[in-house]
Amino acid sequence: MYVCVCNAVTERDIAAAVCDGMTTLRQLRRDLGVTADCGRCARYAHDCLRSALAQHTDQAVATAPAFARPTLPLALEAT
Ligand code: FES
Q: 8: Cβ below 6 Å to ligand 1?
């Protein structure tokens, strides 16, 4: 689905940008043109960015080697 109609940016484009290392709306604006024209897409673009960042983080944690995964504090670990 299109997020930014003015620049034909889709949710998939934003997810791909996050996989390439973008983490801010400013970076999306600079590289994809999101919000650069009318700006009506700003709120939805921000929501898509947050969602893509959350998914990307979850995938990174799930696929990271065991030694690189964050550990829970001892008090929260299951016994
Ligand atoms: S819809 Fe994104 S700048 Fe117009």
A: no
The rounded distance, in Å, linking the Cα atoms of 41 and 3 is 6
Q: What is the pLDDT of residues 19-75, one digit of tens each?
A: 999 999 999 999 999 999 999 999 999 999 999 999 988 877 777 776 666 666 655
Mutate-to-test residue for ligand 1 from 41, 43, 44, highest number of ligand atoms within 8 A of CB:
41
Atom of ligand 1 nearest to the CA of 42: 2
pTM across the whole model = 0.76
Instruction: Kindly state the helix (H) or strand (E) to which residue 10 belongs, with its residue range.
Output: strand 9-10
CATH ID of 2-68, from 1.10.10.10, 1.10.10.1100, 2.30.30.40, 3.40.50.960:
1.10.10.1100
